[in-house]
Design goal:
- With 60 residues, the chain is mainly beta.
- The protein has one domain: Ribosomal protein L33 (Rubrerythrin, domain 2, Single Sheet), CATH 2.20.28.120.
- Helix content is 8%, strand content 48%.
- It has a four-stranded antiparallel sheet with strand order 2-1-4-3.
- The N and C termini lie far apart (29 Å).
- The relative contact order is 0.34.
Length: 60
Amino acid sequence: MARNRNRIQVILECTEHKTTGMPGMSRYITTKNKKNTTERLELKKFNNVLRRVTVHKEIK
């Protein structure tokens, strides 16, 4: 079985959680195709601490 070298793992972190000052953080791990998606990912995901769907951006 061939491995796809174009897909890489990225970490998504909540942008709204930083501004609230609450302890903890919301992070997700996902994969993306680096050839098709060269810019940073930005997805809406559920934040357990804030108990709502927020924007999560890719971190380095």
